[in-house]
Amino acid sequence: MNEARRSELLATYRDGLLHDTLPFWLSHGVDHQHGGIITSLNRDGSIIDTDKGVWQQGRFAWLLGELYNQVEQRPEWLDMARHTIIFLNQHGFDPSDGRMWFHLTREGQPIRKRRYAFSEAFAAIAMGELAQATGSEQLAKQAQALFLRFVRHNPMPKFTDVRPTRGIGVPMITINAAQQLRDSIELPEANDFIDHSIDAIRRYHVHEDIACVMETVGPAGERLDHFDGRTLNPGHAIEGAWFIMWEGQYRQDAELIALGCRMLDWMWQRGWDQQYGGMLYFVDVAGLPVQEYWHDMKFWWPQNETIIATLLAHAVTGEAKYETWHQQAHEWAYQHFADSTHGEWFGYLHRDGSHSTSLKGNLWKGPFHLPRMQLTCWKILETLVPSS
Amino acid sequence: MNEARRSELLATYRDGLLHDTLPFWLSHGVDHQHGGIITSLNRDGSIIDTDKGVWQQGRFAWLLGELYNQVEQRPEWLDMARHTIIFLNQHGFDPSDGRMWFHLTREGQPIRKRRYAFSEAFAAIAMGELAQATGSEQLAKQAQALFLRFVRHNPMPKFTDVRPTRGIGVPMITINAAQQLRDSIELPEANDFIDHSIDAIRRYHVHEDIACVMETVGPAGERLDHFDGRTLNPGHAIEGAWFIMWEGQYRQDAELIALGCRMLDWMWQRGWDQQYGGMLYFVDVAGLPVQEYWHDMKFWWPQNETIIATLLAHAVTGEAKYETWHQQAHEWAYQHFADSTHGEWFGYLHRDGSHSTSLKGNLWKGPFHLPRMQLTCWKILETLVPSS
């Protein structure tokens, strides 16, 4: 990447984060009355559902804490992160079992809990950032406790034990949460959990013989010839790929970097839409029809993860292929998802790039994947050595 | 409707059912080795997942029994219905609680049970037809017992009790199952359950002040200003509309016919896609964005239900408007869903009518909505008095 391109991209990510994405959520989503953030916003930022997602509270507080710790110690970022954590501590937990909820009313009454403990993982990394920012021992301890509750959680099974499966989601989130908590509170268990999770991904999900990252496999990594077992989620696997590359870069471990790049290579080939551009949501490992209805839609977050992974792969390997892929992914996403009128990104496009909905957020889309991409790519570009 | 159109349509439905839809499933789906039917078929009928849906077993046996009882006493239809019921009785029930499963392996091992008891409802109507065909007292008793288990079932809640809701699905299926069982086994409780369910729909879901059938409401019919509460399912409401019209015709009750027609009128206005044609999957009562990703796709079954409802409305009222709507719905569906190469219908189209997948079936799409439409419309047209 030459210097002109590097500095142009860096400005796009940095200014987009600070002058577009962040102001969009801060001015439209923050609930000054009840605390926390409302993320179900229409195109112009107007609220269309006052309910609150617990994931999004943790993710928003994490983002603000990370910005405070990594970018600039702006008091309003710290205040807003604190205000969100207070809401989470007041309303996020079910006193009957200590588990966190998934879905709350605006006032914080519980609507729904889910089987998995991802609410705990996002709350943990948020509290870690706030602990780092404030030096609070108590928050650091709570972050560690929540992380351990997440990794030790055994979800109630949805299925019988006739065909047990394992998914790539939990080890992936474990890697990323442990990386975050290693940075923020020097989590003592971080490296062990990262090793263990990368090992699980390599052992069960990375299928070298068919050049594929399998999303869902049997307990020993068996490929299951049914809809669920054949369904690949390329954007998700590519997110896992950059978590592993990131670890490789941190540890100066060439094998980990190579593993992450291989995962990216495979899933780019399988998931990038050669016809319309953009990363598809689901594809079938054997090219058969996918059962999920939205398989060929373009969601915002797989594009965010692909943009990070290709840029990071280029930064750590210097390979021109990754710069080309990054440019493709970046251009397509900015052309189709960015809203030049009201800011932020649309979330859900049809395969051809047309809008499926004007939603800017809901319980799943909030201030996370896009601003994390902008921050991560900005920081990667700061240390990238341009080609002459 | 003039006589030429009537006889042309009648042939389309009758011949389509007997020479296309039914042979497609009989030749590709029937599992002669383990019993029952496999419905996860690709465009050409090849099997892409050997798992079996419990709903589809009941629906397939119901269809065959209904054909045997209403159309012609073909022994192969009876044999196949019996073979499917045997599979269901061998593998469909969880001995630990008597509930039926939702998802089985090809051999009949259980994979998943769901909170609702729709498996029981579809098994009940299947057993009712088989009881009628064979005179079996035992099957009639089992059909009645399953129906009662369905209507008395209290599903485990998925949400807390902070915002309780009621859906239109259970009263709708209750009406239809009771109508079927009244015909097949003279179910003594049928009229009571039908009255009670129509009353619930009228009282809670039919919102005259905004001319709308609400899919999900509060316990007293309150409109809930959140994603779930605002989301309408026009094809589903239109299915409920023709169940009620059907009851009105059966009882010679003008008020019920008028109620069904009103429901159809409202939901046609809200759900018919003025831009591309076809019935949309979900729309928002206030015109806001819908949260479900596939909201603007065209699924096969809402078209089937709309075709039945508009034809029945025309048959019972004679109104020209319904003939026009029926023609629109029929033409669009046959143009976009029917597969002239391999038979049957595609299931899932994009909003513009292009194919999203080549799937002919899965655990949700099987030999039910399309053949039921063909049979019902054929029978409606047999008694329709053409205009001169």
Automatic annotation (TrEMBL), chains A, B:
InterPro entries: 6-hairpin_glycosidase_sf, 6hp_glycosidase-like_sf, AGE/CE. Pfam families: GlcNAc_2-epim. Keywords: Isomerase. One of its GO terms (biological process) is carbohydrate metabolic process. This is N-acylglucosamine 2-epimerase. The keyword Repressor does not apply. GO terms for molecular function: isomerase activity. The keyword Isomerase applies. It comes from Bremerella cremea. Gene3D superfamilies: 1.50.10.10. Belongs to the N-acylglucosamine 2-epimerase family. It comes from the Bacteria.
